[in-house]
Amino acid sequence: MVDILPLSSYPSYIDLLPSIQTCNITNLPENYFLKYYLYHALTWPQLSFVAVVRPKNGYTKHTAPDGSGAGSVAEQYPKVVGYVLAKMEEEPTDGVAHGHITSLSVMRTHRRLGIAERLMRMSQRAMAESHRAKYVSLHVRMSNTAALRLYRDTLGFEVETVESKYYADGEDAYAMRMDLSNMWVDWAEIERKDRERAASDEKDGDEGDEVGELGKKEEEKEKMVRVKVGRGLGVGDLVEKNEAQTAQ
Amino acid sequence: MPQPLSSKDASLFRQVVRHYENKQHKKGIKTAEQILKKNPNHGDTLAMKALIMSNMGQQEEAFVLAKEALKNDMKSHICWHVYGLLYRAEKNYEEAIKAYRFALRIEPESQPIQRDLALLQMQMRDYQGYIQSRKTMLQARPGFRQNWTALAIAHHLSGDLEEAEKVLTTYEETLKIPPPTSDMEHSEAVLYKNMIMAESGKVDKALEHLEQVGYRIADVLAVMEMKADYLLRLGRKAEAEAAYTALLDRNPDNSLYYDALIRAKGISSDDHTALKAVYDTWVEKNPRGDAARRIPLEFLEGDDFKQAADAYLQRMLKKGVPSLFANLKSLYTNPVKRDTVQELVEGYVSTAPQSNGSSEGTDNTEFLSSSYYFLAQHYNYRLSRNLTKAMENVDKAIELSPKAVEYQLTKARVWKHYGNMEKAAEEMEKARQLDEKDRYINSKAAKYQLRNNDNDKGLDNMSKFTRNEAVGGALGDLHDMQCTWYLTEDGEAYLRQKKLGLALKRFHAVYNIFDTWQEDQFDFHSFSLRKGMIRAYVDMVRWEDRLRDHPFYTRVAVSAIKAYLILHDDPDLAHGPLPNGSGEDDSERKKALKKAKKEQQRLEKLEAEKREARKAASTKGVDGEVKKEDEDPLGTKLAQTQDPLKDATKFLTPLLELSPKSIEAQCLGFEVYLRRGKHALALKCLSAAHAIDASNPTLHVQLLRFRKALDTLPEPLAPQVAEVVNAEFETLLPKAQNLDEWNNTFVSTHKDSVPHQQAGLTSRQLLNPDSKPQCEQDLASTLDSTDITIETALAGLELLNEWGSSQAAQTAYAQKASSKWPEATVFRLE
């Protein structure tokens, strides 16, 4: 029996990363260092999910010593049979915040259980809720009809363009995307609550404090160096560059 | 005091620093040399040049230069800082910290040095030092939220949860207005504080806090999971029920949520009707999901089970879901359920209209072939094994769908269980050829080649999906991409062939990958503070502390230790495999050894030639990275170690520390420590193994061997050690115990288990060497047991080798085993 779990929610299943890496290199030709997985898990912890086989006797460990609370998979290393590794695009060329599926795979022995679909739906929802992604994008091999069917027919992705020779072996990719804004959290509602709370806390409600809109925060964001997908060093490049700047 | 430079050179020096920061290494070196022409002893310039050289991979030269820089200018913080950075690059963290401290003493206000020191303190888990550094950094720049968060992390990880929470609150109180909703850093910091509250046991306070702040937190799912867990822990059942219902509405494929929901509802585990009703709700809400249909099969019994299993099986077989059996096999620990499932599926195939020539169409063919496929896996499975039936069914499935990769794959598995890896690898190769673009089946085929000890074919298969232009070709790419499964399997295949050099080579490669993974965290100590995803970072730090409790490590460590033990017991194997049985005749053995050495030299020479050829072709990889040539690609140096047991300890220490509950680890620990003459440590392993499983067969033999070792010590143990060892061992195997009796009791208590019988026989011939012929006969008789598996029988054959039994005895045993398992090749003696 397969469980779909958030990779690093509460509690964290970050100890599954080596198994996720193994699942990837068992199934797919595009592989990455563990550090690249860490980089995803520590930058967008909400976006990645993992499918594991439930151990025979269930999950024995619990979050509380007295056995109350929800169970936990941590430190039990169940078999990983699928995962979705996802991120937010760091320098969106169109200037629109959006998510991207870095890698998705399900072991051949565990196909047709709806695992990939569930993984995708969970990730998409988190992109919209946590990062206000306008849409999610991905690449798929043109020959991969099963995946294409999932993305287009089941999930509702649309083909954006064809990227010629996208893959190392020369195959073309469909660049696909899907709008996510219908799952956005209602910020107006949050701000209303903020004001309500402020009004009840203080006698003089601070109504002048208007909405810290998206754009305001944007300029404070640090300049990031593009991370080479896959074989690239990932965080290494990123960090050194930044440290050099702050060292001044 | 920094040595003064002319204003022109000073500006050149600033350029060097800039070139370094922009990774323009060549320009940096050139500019530095320009300065040095006029100021050959300028410490800071020498230091910068050293730093750049280090970044270019010229570690040794860089160190020489950095020392020279220091000699010229002991009072320069730059020289000390660089010295520290070079040590850090070498991963000598202790020395690096010392150098940073010197630098900091000279330049106490320097932010970069303070930061570098702090990062290393974190990496080294010097929490007290880290707290100090972070306090200093906070004082210097209190306006940055990062600095507050970092101090809180320092306190949190050091175990001072209260102080951690206080620091976070102090910063929050400086915020006059709530940061905008889009402020992820704030959102995460708030949730981090909540996590600390819950960890300190103040669950009620954490819940209260979460209810106040949760509505504006970006990580919606985490808030829901935390809240649900808190409610359940606090016994607020009705609210917990609502919270888990909400979670299941998001994700109905998570059995943890169902478990919690059922606890919240207070449904007793034997109230099957009520339990089933819960799951049925979600079948209705989410008809395409699997969990809600599958889980009830766990608790339902009798006719209820049969009915539910029938519905489940038929639905999945009609859909042709290939994972059906994998999804159900955990039920088989219950024999009634196992038999029910068998009966049901056998029923489907016997009543289903056969598809030959019928007009039923393809649907029925798929149902039928899926059913045969299911039965093949069923009869192939350990708890329901009947390999003849497995083969019949898989052949029927293949006949109906000759292109189905899974079916062909299962056929290979059946051969594996027959004990015929040759045939298994061959059949798996056929499966691979059915879908050459699929890496999964390619990986499987490679794995089976390795299981068949065909390392070359295995790599050849792997190379169809690797980046073969990488330095070192396909194998190099598998190292680069940290493909631990392959390296481990490859090493184990070499170990079976007694090619210990190559085996150790692979095991060390996996060991090094774990080192890399540990090192990987370094960059995140600063990166994560900027990103603000603090909970994920803290989880990572904690995970890194137990990184090597991962089964990938356990497995490779066990194999490496075994290799070193073999090497210690037979040092000649350092020169390559020796033919079986060459231990009998001294002159023959010498001949074999000479031949092995010659072969080793030939292979070494071949490698050296290849290396030269590569060097001539190019020194750079495709990525332009300079990669050092491996000086010992065959692992010859590893195998020719002076002290195999010490090398084994390197693998053993993390194993015992992080997987103390593994009885295999403890038993191996005993083997290493006993050979090293460390009796107290050997006994510690025995005690630990005893606590895990007092009747373990390996432990039984080890207890006896330890008793004998104590009785025949070449020189007495130190008095304090002797006292402790004797007292402790007395509780495991009392000195007054008659050992024959003790062994006989063990044998008769476990008379139905072959591994225990094997242990009893090993012990008997240890106690009484004259009994060996009888023991050999008795060991052969264990082959008559109906329960004996091929693996156990193979272990028996290895025992004979261990006992030093004659070739004739081994042949007799092997022949008997071969006639019991005629398909097996593992009993073929070369």
TrEMBL record, chain A:
UniProt-annotated stretches for the region Disordered: 195-220
SUPFAM superfamilies named in the record: Acyl-CoA N-acyltransferases (Nat)
GO cellular component: NatA complex
This protein's UniProt keywords: Acyltransferase, Transferase
The keyword Acyltransferase appears for this protein: yes
Highest taxon, organism lineage: Eukaryota
Protein name listed in UniProt: Acyl-CoA N-acyltransferase
A GO term, aspect molecular function: protein-N-terminal-glutamate acetyltransferase activity
Species name: Aspergillus heteromorphus CBS 117.55
Compositional bias annotation for Acidic residues: 203-212
Residue intervals of the N-acetyltransferase domain: 23-181
Protein family according to the UniProt entry: Belongs to the acetyltransferase family. ARD1 subfamily.
UniProtKB/TrEMBL annotation, chain B:
UniProt cross-references to Gene3D superfamilies, sorted A to Z: 1.25.40.1010, 1.25.40.1040
Protein name per UniProt: N-terminal acetyltransferase catalytic subunit Nat1
Entry keyword annotation includes Repeat: yes
Biased amino acid composition, Basic and acidic residues: 598-615
One cellular component term from this protein's GO annotations in UniProt: NatA complex
Amino acid composition bias (Polar residues), ranges on this chain: 755-768
Highest taxon of source: Eukaryota
